[in-house]
Amino acid sequence: MLNIPSYIEDPSYRYQMPALQITGESRGNGVKTKLINLSDVSRALNVPVEYPLRFFAAELGASSEYKQSENKAILKGTFRREDLQKLLDQFIEKFILCFKCHLPEISYRFKRNILIADCKACGNVRPMDMSHKISNFILKHHPRTEEKPPSTADKKTSGKKKSSKKKKDIESDEKITLEHPDVLEALERISHHLEESPEKICEHINNICIANSFEPDFRVYITLKSIFGQNLVRLLQDPAKIFILKTQAESYPEELIMSLSVIYIPDESFHSRISRIMMSLYENDVLNEEFLTSWSDDQAVFNESSIIYNQNFLDTMKNCAKEFLAWLESAESEEEDEEEEVENNKEETKENNKLLAQKQIIQQQLEKQAEASKPIAEKTNEIAKENEIKPTVDLISRMQIHEEFSIDDI
Ligand SMILES: [Zn+2]
């Protein structure tokens, strides 16, 4: 017996498989290599014989043949046993071992057209590399249950299989909600990576979204909720957080507006800050002028079938952003005037000064607005000051602790 994979040297390793046995066959139309015990090896790996067989064929550029009735696995051509055993280890690395803990404990699952590996040992979830030829074969032929294909070890549970398959089918038709366990789990998973680099965090978000087949609406919602949470205003000052939001939401302005509205509008304490938030998003190029103008003019189209779509929240949100939108409009018309007078330098400078003045006025207005809710504003300032001298790690831990929005934390 060999370990899975064969290069692991531990003699008492838990996961073992028989060594590959082959024999050469030469008949009328060319030479063949018969893989005598590939079915035993496959059973040890808990996959159908055709997976490793097709993997060999793809890697060797050979054609393969499998006769289930005779349990006969054949590769056309002559191959050395050692080479095939090495290839088998490559197959194991790619399709049998968990990416994280490297134990052969993954089971395949499907989300639309993506193959997902769930590790029973460490809980890691990752989309499989779909670039290999056999990934598509597995996608087409793998039994559509969360369990591994039948093997001797699974026999006793085969009675339960039917019901679990049925359940899975219902699940895939079911409309996912914001309280769905997959969504909550995604938020929870991202929260474990908040101390990593923004690039790494984006990678985790991508993996989680692919693994769950989350559409852009959920991608943006999850990013906003897990990365910014109740500390949105403060964290919009953080270039690393802005980078993450920009990466995930830049191409999805409608989804960003819907996510903002569904997360922050139910909390009235956010209403007075919406204009400021929009200004930050605009200044950091997360939302561009073209989109904002179309939203302002009621030309933006929101996907009404999205679970994060709520017309009431969107209306309230726009109302809360009206000061910002008015500023944007006036800045825009100033710009147009400016273009017309492009030859007159003096005028141009004047216009620029006007623009700056306008911006200052708006900022003052926003500050005034914040003053209006003084107890909140006071607390906000205190905490903001307090946080300025604290390391980021502390901010992150604060974010993780508070699940509910709390005024005290902004
Ligand atoms: Zn694992």
UniProtKB/TrEMBL annotation:
Feature: compositional bias, Acidic residues: 332-342
Tree of life domain: Eukaryota
SMART domains: eIF2B_5, eIF5C
Biased composition (Basic and acidic residues): 144-157, 343-352
Family matches, as InterPro entries: ARM-type_fold (IPR016024), IF2/IF5 (IPR045196), Transl_init_fac_IF2/IF5_dom (IPR002735), Transl_init_fac_IF2/IF5_N (IPR016189), Transl_init_fac_IF2/IF5_Zn-bd (IPR016190), W2_domain (IPR003307)
GO molecular function, one term: GDP-dissociation inhibitor activity
GO BP terms: formation of cytoplasmic translation initiation complex
Biased composition (Basic residues): 158-167
SUPFAM superfamilies reported for this sequence: ARM repeat (SSF48371), Translation initiation factor 2 beta, aIF2beta, N-terminal domain (SSF100966), Zinc-binding domain of translation initiation factor 2 beta (SSF75689)
GO cellular component assignments: cytosol
Domain W2: 173-338
PANTHER family in the cross-refs: EUKARYOTIC TRANSLATION INITIATION FACTOR, EUKARYOTIC TRANSLATION INITIATION FACTOR 5
Name of the molecule in the record: W2 domain-containing protein
